[in-house]
Design brief:
By secondary structure, this protein is an alpha/beta fold. The protein is built from 6 helices and 5 strands, in the order βααβαβαβαβα. The chain has a single domain, classed as Methylglyoxal synthase-like domain (Rossmann fold), CATH 3.40.50.1380. β2, α3 and β3 form a beta-alpha-beta unit.
């Protein structure tokens, strides 16, 4: 992923509509970024904002969270927005925790809800 800044987008199932709307609302800002996203989330983002440069990885439970974690570890992701649904049990919860741990270890900005994502985008856009 040479050149430009890279933003990772992930959303749990109950938050995918919110992520798609968030991407649509911020498409002007996101137009300047390379976006990587887990499979279904990336598809929903592309439906909402087809002009964005989105690379879809595997679905989260099938390894997409780990793929994004690897991109964080190699310095290819500059920020992570992960709309987490804290009320629904996730069978791949250990993958989610590992991804968050990598974002913390590599000190990249990470937003886990829409309010924080709005603040993060405002600082990235400034």
């Amino acid at each position: 992923m040479a050149g430009g800044k890279c933003l990772a987008l992930i959303a749990h199932d109950q938050k995918k509509d919110d992520m798609a709307e968030f991407a649509r609302r911020n498409r002007e800002t996101f137009a300047n970024w390379k976006i990587v996203a887990t499979g279904t989330t990336g598809g929903r983002v592309l439906e909402a904002a087809p002009d964005l440069d989105v690379t879809r990885l595997k679905s989260g439970p099938l390894g997409g969270d780990q793929q994004i974690g690897a991109l964080i570890a190699t310095g290819e992701v500059d920020a992570l927005i992960f709309f987490v649904d804290p009320l629904t049990p996730m069978p791949h919860d250990v993958d989610v925790k590992a991804l968050m741990r990598l974002a913390i270890v590599y000190d990249i900005p990470m937003a886990l809800n829409e309010a924080t994502a709005d603040k993060l985008i405002a600082t990235l856009h400034a």
